Amino acid sequence: MDDKTIIAKRVALELKDGELVNLGIGLPTTVAKYVPTGIEVSFQSENGIVGMVPVPFEGLENEFATDAGGAPIGAIPGAASLDSVNSFGLIRGGHLDVTVLGGLEVDEQGRLANWMVPGKMVPGMGGAMDLVTCAKRVIVAMVHTQKGKPKILKQCTLPLTSLRRISLVVTEMAVIEPTAEGLVLREVAPGVSVGQVLAATQARLIVPRHVPVMPITEPWALLPDRRAELRQ
Amino acid sequence: MNKAVSVTRAVEMIPDGASLMIGGFMGVGSPHRIIAELVRQGRKNLTVIANDTGRPGHGIGRLIDAKLVRRVIASHIGTNPETQRQMIAGETEVELVPQGTLVERIRAAGFGLGAVVTPTGLGTVVAEGKQTLEINGKTYLLELPLHADFSLLLAERTDYRGNLSYRLTGRNFNAVIAYAGDKVIAEAVEIVPIGCISPDEVVTPFPLVDYIIEREVRVNGR
Question: Considering only residues 177 to 206 of chain B, which have any Cβ-Cβ distance to chain A shorter than 8 Å?
Fold first, then answer.
């Protein structure tokens, strides 16, 4: 399993039945592929649709059915389209249960920086400031380090997206929950030790006595494949 | 009442230095024919207020490519490296606004409200130099209305009166900018007879729309 799959699979486990969820462009979008069976969530795209399906149905592509990155999408039966005022009414009004976004940096206070690198990359915040400030839960899905340098820091060095303390950080190494006391290490990825997470993190982490492994690997995947045998 | 004009005539009404609100999200729902005509007529020193600046060669990006824009107010320019280059080189002034704040600032101007009071942007560079307000123990940022000389929209359908309907994510900023421009020019995928769009389907009502043009000139119905 590659890093991005680990992250997407783990984030998907955070989603609960009936929730309205906004997935950011890139890695967060892939979370939709791993929503556990038996759970029904609705995806919002802030450019104006609730009930979107990240991949369009073949032959039903439409120039006016796109996600926030301009890529073609599909929609579930019972989807609804809305304009930008109403779309951000859902977000800012607290009607959005979960937002999943990428991150450049997260600090000990649980604050996120994800919209610019001064002098280098100035894409703009798009909807990120509204999403992070106003969604009920904010999940940051990002790789743990950038070119070997930690992204989870004592203090963000890049311009902040919001002062709001985010709800959870999911990386390919760990699940970290920002709390009033600081960043708590909740889980480690399969095959990753607590020591490795600490070494790859600049911020101070609170480590509980027991840190479980992310429950992302199906138990049967660990067993030898006996399907061929059974077929005989 | 027939608001249909040629695209040439519609764009001739826009002077150099005008401020334009342009609909669309990554070019989806942008009035591409009006944009192409702005480039052809070479309108200069424009101020563009829009969600984003599209991509090079596409949507609002065509105005940026042709260096017709002096100032951009947008939430995102990440998909257009040329906008970023012009900003860093000091050729184009760019004001980045959170998307939800941008749409509400436009709405405030169009709906006759004096300001937007929002938690978004507090404690970030967006808040620099702006007033904050304490209401019921919560702090908010005061953001001012955004108005334009012209609003340029794309609808899916318009009737000859200028009632507009949209399709799916093509609605985006179009519906709100219709309220906030002095003159509103709507491009539509098709123009239909009055009465073909039922009142419940109308998203932008006709009094807001001054001129309409069809997206493509069709010959013999094709």
Answer: 203
